[in-house]
Amino acid sequence: MSHANAPLSPTGRLRLARCIVDDGWSLRRAAERFQVSVPTAQRWSQRYRTHGEVGMSDRSSRPACSPRRTPTRTERRIVKLRWLRRWGSARIGYHLGLHPSTVHKVLARYQMARLDWLDRPTGRVVRRYEHAHPGDLVHVDIKKLGRIPDGGGHKVLGRAAGTRNRRAGTGYAFIHNAVDDCSRLAYSEILTDEKKETAAGFWERAHAYFAAHHISVLRVLTDNGSCYRSKVFADALGEITHKRTRPYRPQTNGKVERFNRTLLDEWAYAQMYLSEADRAAAFPLWLHHYNHHRGHTALRGKPPVSRLTVTNLCGQYI
Predict the structure, then answer these.
(1) What are the respective helix, strand and coil percentages of the chain, to the nearest 5?
(2) Are 169 and 200 within 8 A, CB to CB?
(3) Position with higher pLDDT, 197 vs 310
(4) Which of 138, 140, 164, 276 could make an S-S bridge to 147, C-beta 3.0–4.6 Å?
(5) How many whole angstroms separate alpha carbon 278 and alpha carbon 183?
(6) How far apart are alpha carbons 54 and 52 in whole angstroms?
(7) pTM, full prediction
(8) Residues 305/317, Cβ–Cβ less than 8 Å
């Protein structure tokens, strides 16, 4: 396709070619008249003689022959490995002796779905959803995280010293998380266990947090952990509908699972802490940054509070 500043449009090419072929102008005279080079005038006049007016349109830049293109049989093997084993481009390339970029181009040419779009057991494209209003569904989950011993863990002291320090019995921290499906607004606490009383108390505080942001929770989605199947947790929910994921299907609760991963990457393992107290002290600031400042890809680069009707309900927006 000709660009905006091209001296000749298809109509101009036709006028140039007709001056040379039909009216008998010389190449130099026609080139000066239309302000193009002599080779350009010669090219369009020859194309007009051969193809007529149809030849004045732009041609595809795709080569007529690609002798070094990957053989069709190899392409079929690439597609078969992706379809049956759900392997990535690098692994398929190493298996077949091809460069990963070559495998990627073949997969793109055959319009194969990306691995992060697929459900690995079935190979089907994951149907992603998002509720229309804040509070329609809140995802709740617990992330178990090893505590950092005083003086630092293996990242600070090295593998051997860190392992000896860990054996002293620092235990685990249990991070209880609640994420709104529509806005991705998150409420999270670092607690000492995952018992039913702890989970119920966490939800009561999370519910109050969402209510302070004018979010009326209608449904809560959890896994099938014993604390979430207890009567204590059911009493804490009250009239809120409780939904549970299918067994061994954590992707059903995917939004809070993704929040867990973000939490680990950007807070828990983002820097080397010298103690569990140092890491816990950094958590409230990171959580505020996540809710009020950090751009979310599912929200077109905006923070979760951008989907709420009022962004400064708690007076914490800085």
Answers:
(1) 50, 10, 40
(2) no
(3) 197
(4) 276
(5) 29
(6) 6
(7) 0.65
(8) yes
Cβ atoms of 16 and 49 closer than 8 Å:
no
Instruction: Give the residue ranges of DSSP H helices in the chain.
Output: 10-21, 27-34, 38-51, 72-85, 89-96, 100-109, 154-157, 159-166, 196-212, 231-237, 254-263, 276-292
Beta bridge partners of 288: none
Best CA proximity match to 183, nearest among 10, 318, 300: 300
Give the bridge partners for 125, in sequence order: 118
Average pLDDT over residues 165-183: 83
The pLDDT value recorded for residue 314 is 47
Residues 6+ apart with CB under 8 A from 171: 147
Among candidate residues 99, 143, 100, the one with its CA nearest the CA of residue 253 = 143
Which residues, 6+ apart, have CB-to-CB distance to 124 below 8 Å? 118
pLDDT in tens, 133-173: 999 999 999 999 988 888 776 666 665 555 555 555 578 99
Contact between 134 and 184 under an 8 Å Cβ cutoff? The reply is no
The CA distances from residue 49 to 11, 38, 102, 248, 263, in Å, are 16, 17, 41, 70, 68
Give strand pairing partners of 282. none
Q: How do residues 254-291 score in pLDDT, each as one tens digit?
A: 899 999 999 999 999 988 888 889 999 999 999 999 99
Query: Among 174, 187, 205, 198, which Cα is nearest to 268's?
Result: 174
> Strands 172-180 and 241-244: what pairing?
unpaired
